[in-house]
Amino acid sequence: MKEDPSPFDWHPPAGRANGAAALCLHGLTGTPYELRPIASVLLERGVRTRAPWMAGHAGGHLELEQTRHEDWVELARKELAALRE
Questions:
Q1: pTM confidence score
Q2: What is the 3-state secondary structure (H, E, C) of the chain?
Q3: Would you put residue 19 in left (φ > 0), alpha (ψ -120 to 50) or beta?
Q4: Would strands 8-10 and 21-23 be described as parallel, antiparallel, or unpaired?
Q5: 62 vs 56: CA distance, rounded Å
Q6: Residue-wise pLDDT tens digits, 27-60
């Protein structure tokens, strides 16, 4: 089975949502795929889970070389704001 590295925004099934949400951020050189196991457990417990590509990670090592840590912080802030809406 091929890994799916794409970002995700999972919503719990109707009647299971508890109003909580989690922003899941992968590590350096990681992908949203590595967060799927913990996100699945949170989803089962009624938590909405969102995992974006961190800045510079979707385009390979050349893109990552051009990315600053401030880019990661900015992306995390934007994703958190989107999750709160």
A1: 0.85
A2: CCCCCCCEEECCCCCCCCCCEEECCCCCCCCHHHHHHHHHHHHHCCCEEEECCCCCCCCCHHHHHCCCHHHHHHHHHHHHHHHHC
A3: left
A4: unpaired
A5: 8
A6: 888 899 999 999 999 999 999 999 999 888 877 7
* Environment class of 15 (CB within 10 Å of its CB; exposed 0-12, middle 13-18, buried 19+): exposed
Query: Would you place residue 9 in the very low, low, confident or very high pLDDT band (cuts 50, 70, 90)?
Result: very high
Give me 9's structure tokens: 């925004």
Q: Which of 43, 46, 49 is nearest to 7 (CA)?
A: 49
Q: What is the pLDDT of residue 1?
A: 57
Q: Which of 38, 57, 55, 44 is nearest to 13 (CA)?
A: 44
